[in-house]
Amino acid sequence: MTPLFIGAEIYRNSTYGGWHPLRIPRVSTAMDLSRALGWLPRGQYRVSPRAKPAALHIWHDPAYVAALVQAEADGTVSDAVRARHNLGTPSNPVFGEVFRRPATAAGGSMLAGAILGAGPGVVYHPAGGTHHGLPDRANGFCYLNDPVLAMLSLRQAGLRRIAYVDIDAHHCDGVAVAFRGDPDVLMISVHEEKRWPFTGGLEETEGGSALNLPVPRGLNDAEMAFIRDALIVPAVAAFAPEAIVLQCGADAVEEDPLSRLALSNNAHWAVVSALGALTDRYLVLGGGGYNPWTVGRLWAGVWATLNALEIPERLPPEAEAVQRGLSWAGAKMTRMPEPALFTTLRDAPRPGPVRDMLRARVAVLQARSAVLVG
Ligand SMILES: [Zn+2]
């Protein structure tokens, strides 16, 4: 199966505004790096369609969708709309493409759902992964919830059992709202404890559909490998899904400014390949990721992993130029990049001890998983 990459140019120059974490380019960097490395031939690329408002009503409240369209047209919202739909706030600002951009990500994920609903395949959609979006409200930089829309598209195509795995640094609260109590959905989320949105506690089962693993500060590659092999892979394999959706947010790496986790991008790529071995219908989405250099590298490497492409030790000049061309206005100097972020794609591994408290939490979920899927 030749993987497909769904992308669009709308992400290249779109920004949430001067100070916002999403003022940086991300998807365009992953595309530019992939092309510079010769990894993205035309035949594997699909332009993301923009979802029409009515198509979003499959999950989103029509009044909210209309408010989003109107916010883009007006460039502002009323106090009533701000309060009702959480739009025009510091986290969820009104910006120039505030409807078109999330609607394009939604359209890409719905296209991915339709493609995988029609037959086996591998689809990569790094603009997707907006896992905080709620039916009638923007939430956590997410205006629409494209993972939910992708999964509903799979359902519309006739598939029932879906495993959703989320390794973003933040809990997937919006996806949990959508599939709470659904016996044919398994949601596994690994996220930093004591961090916004403060949902997804170890004991929160979402009506029996979720395995939530809050992880401590400083999570290292060895701990993520343990989580992958002791929890994620066996739980998904036992669930025997018809399709797997992986939200591969890039904000759990050491250099990310929005989490205190300490993974290298190798950890993410290893999850990508382990889950790919479990299914013939595989959708990989993006998500968070707020350091422009690390997010582009991680997401280009996901594409390499899906295609079993060799990642070179040193980037060729064209790819290095992509990295050197990025900037990060307003970032603290302590977060400025090491030279390796310009010249390589793969991080050095970040191993460490597997802490006992993490082993204990995984054991709780292993026991619950046995009940869930047994
Ligand atoms: Zn995140």
From TrEMBL:
CDD domains: HDAC_AcuC_like (cd09994). GO terms for molecular function: histone deacetylase activity. Signal peptide: none annotated. Residues 20-306 form the Histone deacetylase domain. The keyword NAD does not apply. One of its GO terms (biological process) is epigenetic regulation of gene expression. Pathway: Ketone degradation; acetoin degradation. It comes from the Bacteria. Keywords: Acetoin catabolism. This is Acetoin utilization protein AcuC. The lineage of its organism: Bacteria, Pseudomonadati, Pseudomonadota, Alphaproteobacteria, Rhodobacterales.
